[in-house]
Amino acid sequence: MLDHALRILKDVFGYDSFRGRQEAIIERVAGGGDALVLMPTGGGKSLCFQVPALLREGLAVVVSPLIALMDDQVATLDELGVAAVALNSTLNAEQQREIAEQINRGEIKMLYLAPERLVQPRMLAFLQRLDIALFAIDEAHCVSQWGHDFRPEYLQLGQLAELFPTVPRIALTATADMRTREEIVQRLHLHNAERFLSSFDRPNIFYRIVPKEQPRKQLLAFLAERKGDAGIVYCLSRKKVDEMAAFLTEQGFPALPYHAGLANELRAYHQKRFLNEEGLIMVATIAFGMGIDKPNVRFVAHLDLPKSLEAYYQETGRAGRDGLPADAWMAYGLQDVIFLKQMLNNSEGDERHKRLEQHKLDAMLALCEETRCRRQVLLAYFDEDMPNPCGHCDNCIDGVQTWDATEPARQALSAIYRSGQRYGVGHLVDLLLGRDNDKVRGPGHQHLSVFGVGKAFSEGEWRSLFRQLVARGLADVDLEGYGGLRLSDSCRPLLRGEVTLQLRRDLKPQHTAKTSSSAASQLVRGDEREQWEALRALRRKLAEEHAVPPYVIFPDATLLEMLRSKPGTLAEMAQVSGVGARKLERYGAAFLEVLSGNAEAPRVVLDLRHELVSLARAGMTPLQIASQLQCSEKNVYSLLAEAIGRQQLSLQQALDLPEELLGEIQDAFLDGEGELPPVAEVSGLFVGRAEDGVLYCVRAALQAEFGA
Q1: Which one of 50, 124, 187, 211 is at 20 to 30 Å from 562 when CA atoms are compared?
Q2: Would you call 327 helix, strand, or coil by DSSP?
Q3: Residue 173 in this model has a pLDDT that exceeds 50
Q4: What's the CATH class of domain 527-706?
Q5: Which pLDDT belongs to residue 146?
Q6: Rounded to whole angstroms, how far apart are CA atoms 389 and 367?
Q7: Is residue 51 within 8 Å of 5, Cβ to Cβ?
């Protein structure tokens, strides 16, 4: 079985060997056993069910919570030559019937479904009549009622164990602590499942957390070294998302907003642009995230504090899925803490639930103020021990300075108490610095014993101290009033002089600037830049032709290996990780032309548009043009489609098609509403009558005519 699995891995997916626990998981599921798989984002979860699906007889059913996630995986499998479909609400009744017929004829290998569709009686009855290879339940943490991605439909998936007792089930997630893992096992009836727990560590991500001072300025400094990189900026409120997206665009960074307040069509359009275009920044609330499979997101920035370490891990985990260097950056301040505590206090739910959420927030605060290695603390939260510091986070690189804050902390706590435990940090800092203003004079606080006792410290140092007192639970937020600070019971030993207090000293921005340059921006050297951009340009063109995101053609990691290994033949190209048999056949020659290094080949792919247009206008056929330009006929069709799309050529100038066949092809593309379908969906109707290159040209002409 292992030999067969390795052959599928190489021929279909283009990889030479399995990573981590993949081999053991595949052996378990392919052999008919159940499995619970905990694997970090970017760790290769999909292969754990896709390879067994190709090893076993019958239809593999994949449960996925989001249409975007389904469509992405189906597009990826289609490019690999695997017959996969998604059955979801975007399809009309006739399209759904056609898929059902294809499944009955045994033409489909993998079926993607949302959980609510799978558990419908008609769907279950339909599946019971088929030979089912396996059930894969992706994003299985959605079954947890305590999780932030809870989906009630997942609770009904337990019935698969009774209805399909002989069919193996594999549940997969990237985010689950011990409690959530047990909940998955109980609710999905996976009691006999073997558990495969991979490390939570994402070693390619660099973690940095900075005190929030001037957030816009700080974000711009972070982004300045990441121009051209794709990334996500998370904010808590919709208003802030809109404002930040507009601000970044004004500053020359292409940014799009995404939140639940936008119209569905606009949200979908922005998501599609983010997936399909290079170098876009998505500014978003947490409504954006699950199902984002874009592997070359080079950074995730948080301008507000996440509610929990689970949320932080999951959101930062959307960076660097391709295994290449990525950055997780966050600016956080006391106001974030106050806002989240107020949100929690005003939320629905019983006291037990609120206590649990408070515990999660406390763990998040602890990571922010941590003086040890960030990665060690993050992994420990998920019950994983990392013996040595990672050397790849801000605390490890910059070092952390601590100071004896015992006496200033007592002064700060005293200021909270003596002013009545109802004022915010701004007032308390004014009080300690002895500022004689109306706000201090109004309640007569200039007469308090703490007035002016803190002049030895700056305003920034006092604000940092108050932030850390709240984070450590020595002071708390008055949730009944206006968010002022009050003492907590745990501060008594400090006030009585029974303990001392060490706090971290915030580093000045100019200090951190030296070490914050992005490893992600250094993927390619200066002398490689031109060829790297040529490879990306070719990828982008092919992606447009096939109506898929660029990373579905090849991810950055594969392009980078091409750039470094310089394959000169198709056989050598086949050895590049990520180049399977189908992609080698489709794209190998075109990428070899760019890599060949002589001036002619890249010119054929990228620079011969003008000459090609002239030859087509002169009446040459695509075959004659290919001979004249000494390149493949496939490349000629690609360039013709591009010229038609730019309205440099008419369809009649590019192709000499019988009128009847042209009409049939146009009808096939226009048979529906909204966007034109990709060529892959139409090509099956014209096998032996019109090659794909012809279809690309007709589609480009229709797009130019209707703007579809």
Answers
A1: 50
A2: strand
A3: yes
A4: mainly alpha
A5: 64
A6: 14
A7: yes
> How distant is the alpha carbon of residue 452 from its chain centre?
49
The rounded distance, in Å, linking the Cα atoms of 149 and 162 is 26
In which band, very low, low, confident or very high, does the pLDDT at 514 lie, cut at 50, 70 and 90? very low
Query: What stretch(es) of the chain map to CATH 3.40.50.300?
Result: 2-197, 205-398
CATH 1.10.10.10 domain locations along the chain: 402-506
Please tell me whether residue 169 adopts helix, strand or coil conformation.
strand
Average pLDDT for 245-271: 90
Strand partners, 205: 326
Predicted confidence (pLDDT) per residue in 323-369, tens digit: 899 999 999 998 888 888 888 887 777 777 788 888 888 899 989 98
Between CA 5 and CA 16 the distance in angstroms is 11
Tokens of 350: 């019983």
Check whether domain 2-197 has CATH 3.40.50.300, yes or no = yes
CATH 1.10.150.80 in the chain is located at 527-706
- The DSSP string of 555-624 is -HHHHHHHHHH---SHHHHTTSTT--HHHHHHHHHHHHHHHT-SSHHHIIIII-HHHHHHHHHTT--HHH
Pure H helices in 472-524: 492-495, 509-513
Residue 559 CA to residue 580 CA, distance in Å, equals 14
CATH of domain 205-398: 3.40.50.300
Residue 447: how many other CB atoms lie within 10 Å? 9
Q: Rounded to whole angstroms, how far apart are CA atoms 256 and 271?
A: 9
Q: Which CATH class is domain 402-506?
A: mainly alpha
Average pLDDT over residues 659-671: 89
The 10s digit of each residue's pLDDT in 410-419 is 999 999 999 9
